[in-house]
From TrEMBL:
It comes from the Bacteria. Residues 5-55 form the CsbD-like domain. Belongs to the UPF0337 (CsbD) family. Residues 1-62 are annotated as: Disordered. It comes from Saccharopolyspora spinosa. InterPro entries: CsbD, YjbJ_sf. This is CsbD-like protein. Residues 1-24, 33-55 have a biased composition (Basic and acidic residues).
Length: 62
């Protein structure tokens, strides 16, 4: 997984966490749900890239 992909995925995850927290603080269920979804999407992308790295033998990116 390239460093650029890692950064994008982590950024998406962090944006989701922030959005979720704002939703919790303002008691806005829609915003909280959107944040959770975005956070999970970032997590899943990172996991997928790690699996891909494992199969390609990219030891530097683990």
């Amino acid at each position: 997984m390239s460093a650029e992909d890692k950064a994008k995925n982590k950024t998406e995850e962090l944006k989701g966490k922030v959005k979720k927290k704002i939703g919790e603080a303002t008691d806005t269920e829609q915003l909280e749900a959107e944040g959770k979804g975005k956070e999970m999407k970032g997590d899943l992308k990172q996991a997928g890239e790690k699996v891909k790295d494992a199969f390609t033998g990219d030891e530097n990116e683990k």
